[in-house]
Write a structure and sequence with these properties.
The protein is α+β, with helices and mostly antiparallel strands. Helices cover 24% and strands 33% of the residues. The longest helix has 18 residues. The protein binds adenosine-5'-triphosphate and magnesium ion.
């Protein structure tokens, strides 16, 4: 059995003149939690729709578990999709919603116990008789997940499924989703424009820009070792120098001159609870962002204010060269 469950081979998809997906070659591995990350309009949803069969590539191939999908209609592909908006049937109960997909499969035997099992898996046990309008946003998304997972897809496609939830619930659901993916062992392809969400959830991530994949790697590789300016910027590494970039949390502030530190002037600070984000302008006019952990008692650094002299220091090994 190949390690690769899903392969994009030089896939091209245009809408009129717009290249929505442009020369994408990409392997997604069996059982991994994979994130497609990028700004609005970069082609994430189009890529998912090509997998699901709602769109056809102009050229190139989508290969799912060794089978070229070119001639396989959407309803025969072994994938299911969870959308941003819940897409539940409002007139059906939770149980009926979860059971819905099973109607099209021959394996309806033991469906009651399978539904119960699924509801437990998504922590919705005991709520099977409710209608969607009696559920919270998070609960609706759990039902949508159960409805997709009960069909045992080879790949589960998730298009910003948590985007409509408030921040706190979203963080909770991220943890649940990660645990759930590990338990069921199904390959998840998760679309998001939120880099933090991609880092929290995914094993590997593809960062997309203008229909192209700019970089593929583990979350740590993409965060710590961005290859291009676009990826670096998108991952929040904002201190650009000629040929390299330094992440703001790798820089430190000093109130006195130390060897190798760059002299600057404080231009502003934003207290963020666990961290403080500082802006400092170097003597040659470069604006640097430094993130300091608020892990001690207030000190000379935390008392700095706009206009104060400061020295910014970082280690050579934190300079990441860009292509
Ligand atoms: N059916 C369509 N007809 C014409 N253009 C389309 C169509 N679907 C997508 N596009 C265009 O293709 C590009 C990629 O769109 P896509 O929906 O894949 O982006 P996305 O990364 O999912 O963005 P978002 O984060 O906003 O959901 C955009 O420029 C979009 O306007
Ligand atoms: Mg989209």
């Amino acid at each position: 059995m190949s390690d690769v469950i899903l392969r994009f081979d030089a896939v091209e998809k245009h809408f009129d003149a717009t290249p929505a997906v442009h020369g994408v070659t990409l392997d997604i591995r069996r059982g991994e939690f994979f994130a497609l990350l990028g700004p609005s309009g970069c082609g994430k949803t189009t890529l998912l729709r090509l997998i699901a069969g709602f769109e056809q590539p102009d050229t190139g191939r989508v290969i799912l578990d060794g089978v070229d999908m070119a001639r396989v209609p959407a309803n025969e592909r072994p994938v299911n999709t969870v959308f941003q908006h819940y897409a539940l049937f409002p007139h059906l109960t939770v149980t009926e919603n979860v059971a819905f997909g099973l109607r099209y499969q021959s394996k309806i035997q033991n469906s009651e116990s399978r539904i119960e099992e699924m509801l437990q898996l998504v922590r919705m046990e005991g709520l099977g008789d409710r209608k969607p309008d009696q559920l919270s946003g998070g609960q609706k998304q759990r039902v949508a997940l159960a409805r997709a997972l009960i069909l045992h897809p080879k790949v589960l496609l998730l298009d910003e499924p948590l985007a409509a939830l408030d921040v706190k619930l979203r963080k909770e659901m991220q943890m649940e989703l990660k645990t759930l993916q590990r338990r069921v062992g199904i390959t998840f392809v998760f679309v998001t424009h939120d880099q933090e969400e991609a880092l929290t959830l995914a094993d590997r991530v593809a960062v997309m820009n203008l229909g192209k994949v700019e970089q593929v790697g583990t979350t740590e590789e993409v965060f710590e070792r961005p290859k291009t300016k676009f990826v670096a910027e998108f991952m929040g590494a904002v201190n650009f120098f000629d040929g390299f970039v330094v992440r703001p949390e790798k820089m430190r502030l000093r109130v006195t001159a130390v060897e190798g530190a760059v002299e600057a002037k404080v231009e502003g600070k934003v207290y963020q609870g666990g961290t403080t984000r500082w802006l400092a302008r170097t003597m040659d006019g470069r604006l640097l962002t430094v993130i300091e952990q608020n892990d001690g008692v207030p000190d000379a650094v935390s008392r700095l204010k706009s206009g104060d002299r400061v020295w910014v220091k970082w280690e050579k090994r934190h300079e990441v060269p860009l292509q």
